[in-house]
Automatic annotation (TrEMBL):
Keywords: Signal. The keyword Signal applies. Residues 59-154 form the DUF3859 domain. This is DUF3859 domain-containing protein. It holds the Pfam family DUF3859. It comes from Jannaschia pohangensis. It comes from the Bacteria. The keyword Lyase does not apply. InterPro entries: DUF3859. Residues 1-21 form the signal peptide.
């Protein structure tokens, strides 16, 4: 389940460069399995139709981008606005191999990154159909242009030992 704590060729290039100058990647990685809490928010551009608004207090337990399909394991990225940029409307996008009955490959929702704060966006493996191995990419888009993208590789086996070692206190 997705969770969240966007003319001419020359003009288009200038707009993309301007948009990229607004958002920066703070960090990306994996968060050990924890209970999912937070309000459910409508997100019709997702497989589930909603996202969970999570607490900003979560931190990444591992900076790894190879993600095993463990129950309640979360992964994603934290972004922020660059200095001097006011609040910014963005679209958060997650692409992945086909998922669910409809074979969804792109999930998206609108968000606002507030000046002076950070935006945490995660995917958590809560249901069996969500555990789709392959290439996943988290992105922030502004006006349809990607400004930050972070790739992950979801796998059924790789890196499980490292995750279990880092997350032993959270695993039952």
């Amino acid at each position: 389940m997705l969770r969240s704590v966007v003319f001419a060729a020359v003009v288009g290039l200038a707009a993309a460069t301007s948009a990229q100058a607004k958002v920066r990647l703070v960090e990306a990685g994996i968060i050990c399995p924890r209970e999912s809490t937070g309000a459910l928010i409508d997100a019709p551009g997702t497989e589930a139709g909603f996202i969970r608004r999570i607490d900003e207090g979560l931190t990444f337990d591992l900076p790894d981008r190879t993600v095993p399909t463990l129950d309640n394991l979360s992964f994603g990225f934290r972004t922020a606005l660059k200095p001097g940029v006011g609040s910014q409307a963005v679209t958060v996008v997650v692409t992945h191999p086909p998922m669910g009955e409809r074979g969804v490959i792109r999930e998206e929702w609108d968000d606002v990154i507030e000046a002076g704060s950070q935006s945490l966006n995660l995917f958590t493996f809560e249901l069996p159909y969500e555990k789709v191995p392959g290439a996943w990419v988290f992105s922030i888009e502004i006006d349809g242009e990607p400004v930050v993208s972070v790739p992950f590789e979801v796998t059924e086996v790789n890196n499980r030992g490292r995750i279990e070692q880092a997350c032993f206190q959270f695993l039952s």
